[in-house]
Amino acid sequence: MYRFLLFLIALITLSGCTSNHLPLRTVDYVDLGHYGGRWYEIARYEHSFEKGCRNVSATYTLKEDGDIRVVNRCTTEEGTVKEVVGRAYATDTTNSKLKVSFFRPFYGNYWVLMLDDAYSYALIGDPSREYLWILSRRPTLEPAIIKRILEELPEFGYDSSRLIWTEQDG
Fold it and tell me: What's the whole-model pTM score?
């Protein structure tokens, strides 16, 4: 039984390593201090941990040890506020590839694919192309910026038809 469990864990882990996509390109550099603060979710790929959420935001706080405190918040379908706290850390000197965990010891990829010079919007994904978020410093994003992001999604290997547009009450 023990060997079977090890085999199953290895199989699941390795299956995430195969892909029909080219390597995912990230931004050249992220200033984590500047990236900190509140970000509003504009759109996402749907996943169970955000199902039915609106007013979704994430707040990033750079800690003295270099790790990042992550607070994700949303309003559920029932109208209650749900909050989860996690941690993140950069995996290289560009700070564009992070590992994030809300349920240690399990970490997920958080790669910054697009980030404007003013740090007012960002596109976040992962190499498997199963996760995608469009984030903004404000609850809305200008249509021209959304259009630009959507036009570039295929270059990253993402399908814009899978996006769920997040309701933000303001």
Answer: 0.86
